[in-house]
User: What shape does this take?
Amino acid sequence: MDTLQKAARLLYLCIFFCTGQLLCAQNDEINSLLLQLDYTLKERPANIAQYELELKEMNHTYEQLPTDDARFDFLGKLLDKYRTFNVDSSLAVAQRRYHIALRLNNKEHINNARMNMAEVLGTAGMYKEAIDLMQPIHTDSLPQYLHSYYYHIYRTIYGLMADYAVTEQEKEHYTTLTNSYRDSLVQSHTQGSPEYVLVMSDCYNIRGEYDKAIQSLSQYLKKYQNNTRYTAFFAYTLSESYRLMGDLENNKKYLIISAIADMQLPVREYVSLRKLSILLFHEGQVERAYDYLKLCMDDAVACNARLRILEILEIFPIVNDAYQQKLNKQQVKMKWALVFISLLSFFLLAAMFYVYKQMKRIAAARKEVIDANNQLKELNEQLCNSNDKLKEANHNLAESSYLKEEYIGRYMDLCSIYLDKMDNYRRQLGKIASKGNVEELYTQIKSSKFIEQELKEFYANFDSTFLHLFPSFIEDINSLLLPEEQIQPGPHEQLNTELRILALIRLGITDSVKIAHFLRYSITTIYNYRTKMRNKASGDRNLLERQVMKIGSLRMYEA
Assistant: This one.
């Protein structure tokens, strides 16, 4: 007993696992077919444009035909192209064909053209007008090849009238007529032909023999898989068989296949995509159902298929309301998501700022620790090498004040030298005066040679000292000037007059009177020099002197 229970459980698990795998595979196949359908819909505008171009060429060809017989036959082909693309054009072609048949006085052509018009009117929902056109026609007056067409029209019209009958009595009456003409249609087709299989499968579905219909349709669907038109018909009828069986997954699968074929043809009067939209809507795929149903409506309007428009209007408001509700919910969710993201962004920025501040503190603390470690390391090295480190420390201390001592010493020496020179000059004049040589004394006093020589030496010392303080002064000045206005001192000069003016400005002496007094020039000359140099500036001329005062400031600080 235990063995049987274990076996049953194992069998149950195997069935459950296999069923799950089968469902997953079927879902993957349906999803793949839906993606293929979406791609076909994207390509459809190009297919319709190509189809319309073919129709335009056929209409042009029709105008060139020489005889009514040729025109009648060609209009039959043109009607096949328009039949599921535009009802108004189909009716116009059928009427034109009928008038040509009257001109030819050919009864066979007249009956054929009347059936063409009846078929189009039936598609447009004008059932009474269609039956009125068919009543004068009898099968005994038709050739054999038109019998199936005759029965097809009656079956289609009465089938539609049964679908839209108001009372049960009318529905039963039209259903009986539909079944009668369907049986006649089966007998009129050659057994084994695609048309025979389609009508016979319809009969199987009516009788509830779904397995027979599925077996026959599946076989012919594979056989005619390269024929898009037959694929659309076979797949749609097969989907109906599965729907009647209650197999919704296969019903959906073959509706998708039929819809893909319809979109590839392309046609504008179809059923598969509308029924697929309704199926997807009930499954909760509202957005996709809305897109498909909107396309169905657009095509029905473009085709002027009033019957299809009425069918779509039965479900479209419901789908549209659901779609709008879904959009509203998505918008509300999006608003809340935007608020949440905004708050999250604010907190994220605050957190980033806090982390940044903490990182700066940590970096500062780490730098202090590193500096402290370096100092400890230096102290340890100094303790290990006491003499050498002491000398190096003294050298470092001396080096820090070297420049200041040098600059102060240089100017003290210069002042001392000037005092000595003035004393020597005084003594020299005293000697000349003691000798009573008034003319020589007057000549010496009047001569500016001594002053010129001292000024020259003074400027040379000034140039040397200034360039020692600012070694790249000339290059820095030229970087502020236009390329063609660069300043270079003479062969035996360190600084020329323009550079000395700029050097004094760098030292903070900006008063033209003081500069003129220092360089022994008139105030007008100094003003002209400054104006000329400002005109040479590569940038804003009014900012040149401010930029000059910043030269070397970083180096001075580092020194």
Summary: The mean pLDDT is 83.
